[in-house]
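Justification of computing resources. Each target in the renewal requires a structure prediction run like the one illustrated here; the chain below, 71 residues long, is used simply to show the kind of job we budget for.
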Amino acid sequence: METIKVDARGLSCPQPIVETKKVIDKLSGGRVEILVDTVTSRENVLRFGRNAGWKGSFEESEDSFKVILEK
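Resulting structure tokens:
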């Protein structure tokens, strides 16, 4: 399964959601990794993905979060 990556670091909400939506609207399933750098963006992207029917989780690193959406 191919992983699609979206780098939304440095973007203010709602831009990380807009960038995520552009990608998942083209997919029927798969794995998407979205990089964000704030807790608010992390939570908003997770909520958006789950509401769109994707399973969501995240990993935290020193300076960012990787939100993982899978379907």
